[in-house]
Design goal:
Layout lengths: L8 H4 L3 H26 L19 E3 L7 E2 L11 E6 L4 H9 L9 E3 L5 E3 L6 E2 L5 H5 L1 E6 L11 H18 L8 E3 L17 H14 L2
Parallel strand pairs: 1-5, 3-7, 3-8, 4-7
Antiparallel strand pairs: 2-6, 4-5
Helix pairs in contact: 5-6
This protein binds zinc ion.
The site of zinc ion has 6 residues, from loops.
Enzyme class: hydrolase
Protein name: N-acetylmuramoyl-L-alanine amidase
GO molecular function: N-acetylmuramoyl-L-alanine amidase activity
């Protein structure tokens, strides 16, 4: 993300009834998308496994489904090659971010959200196109990773977050043959046409890329 959230958000997802409906509805919709996609392609995407809710692409991730309005069903890497990872900062706390990605009105979501304590949540399958970069080509060809925090608060970028995110990015790079360099692991701010600034100047790119490279070597 990378912009301030509308102040109205705070109260919206908080109503228990509405939240329950939203989550249940999301699960049902996802089931429909599964049947549709598998009917169209006739097979699951090799390397990513079956399109089953609750089954993340990354072994250390927990699954929470985003609203199907926040991504497009696809069959990557067969229809679009995955060529990069886009790093984001949420400009919101973890719970708010997850609620936004579950909300069909948000019209955006990333594949992953990394919490400050290092927990990784997957919300969209990698074979699908998440609406996170604000640029059609970059959405089609990337995996988006959100990090819990604010671009103006360096303390938000914890050791645990860097370490967990680097392991995730290394795993994505390994599975799709994406080079571990700054042409292929980029910030949202580097996407052409964006007005977003995340991950911002406090994101420690040299450190992050070192951690990604180290994790990539370990798993080679
Ligand atoms: Zn962003």
């Amino acid at each position: 993300m990378g912009r301030e959230l509308p102040p109205a958000w705070g109260g919206r997802g908080a109503t228990p009834g509405r939240r329950a409906v939203l989550i249940g509805g999301g699960a049902a919709l996802l089931g429909g998308a599964v049947a549709l996609a598998e009917g169209l392609s006739g097979r699951g995407a090799p390397g990513t496994g079956p399109r089953a809710p609750g089954r993340p692409d990354y072994a250390d991730a927990r699954w929470v489904a985003a609203s199907t309005d926040n991504y497009r069903v696809a069959d990557r890497p067969h229809d679009f090659r995955i060529e990069m990872v886009v790093v984001h900062v949420t400009q919101a706390d973890y719970d708010t971010t997850v609620r936004l990605f579950e909300d069909p009105r948000h019209e955006a979501a990333a594949h992953y959200v990394v919490r400050q304590d290092g927990r990784v949540t997957q919300m969209i399958r990698e074979l699908d196109v998440a609406f996170h970069a604000g640029n059609r080509w970059y959405n089609d060809h990337s995996v988006g990773i959100e990090h819990e925090g604010f671009v103006t608060r360096p303390r938000d970028f914890t050791d645990a977050m860097y370490a967990a995110s680097a392991r995730l990015t290394a795993d994505v790079c390994r599975r799709y043959g994406v080079p571990v360099d700054r042409r292929h692991v980029i910030g949202h701010v580097e996407v052409p046409g964006t007005d977003h600034t995340d991950p911002g100047r406090f994101w420690d790119w040299p450190r992050y890329m070192r951690l990604v490279a180290r994790a990539r070597e370990r798993d080679a």
